Amino acid sequence: LKIGVLISGSGSNLQSILDACACGKIAGRVVCVISNKADAFGLERAKKAGIPALHLDHRAYSGREAYDEALVASLREFGVELVVLAGFMRIITQVLLDAFPMRVMNIHPALLPAFPGLHAQRQALDYGAKVAGCTVHFVDCGCDTGPIIIQAAVSVIEGDTEDTLSARIQKEEHRIYPEAIRLFSEGALKVDGRVVTVRA
Ligand code: GRF
Fold first, then answer.
1. According to UniProt, where does the site described as Raises pKa of active site His lie (predicted)?
2. Of 27, 46, 47, 101, which sees the most CB atoms within 10 A?
3. Which of 7, 13, 164 to mutate to test ligand 1, by most ligand atoms within 8 A of the CB atom?
């Protein structure tokens, strides 16, 4: 499976995916990493792993569709079969989704459908939630609304700050994202409407 990873920042999820490919857990490899931010540390991680690392600046394009067309062109150039959004802080459009139907995944730091959108961990704390977590899902045209593949829960502990809760959630992110990609790479995910099941 040829995987393309889109990032905007640190790329710790990217790292967990690179590691899972390197040790043979995922039947596939990351063929390119694209960031909309020039200074994303994830680009360094990609280079270190010997993987093409591209900066595609969204500000150089007239709008979201035009930007996504450029993304699609790059992803196709590398023969990408699965697009993995890993801290990619851009809203994607139908242009990307049509090019990769049910082949775009995202990770969100909340137990969807609770707390979609930005600052999900902050939202959970402010709401007074006692359980938080993360969700890997296929991307559809909504914001954090696509079919759920895997979720993991963590406790909210008294005295938690956004940082301490985020760190607890990230540990789980680094476990479930490679796992979801592994299942996909083995053809084990079946999508029926909203519901994703795992073939034994
Ligand atoms: C993660 O918390 C992820 O859930 C969210 O963005 C963050 C990315 O972190 N979508 P990293 O760049 O993978 O370290």
1. 144
2. 46
3. 13
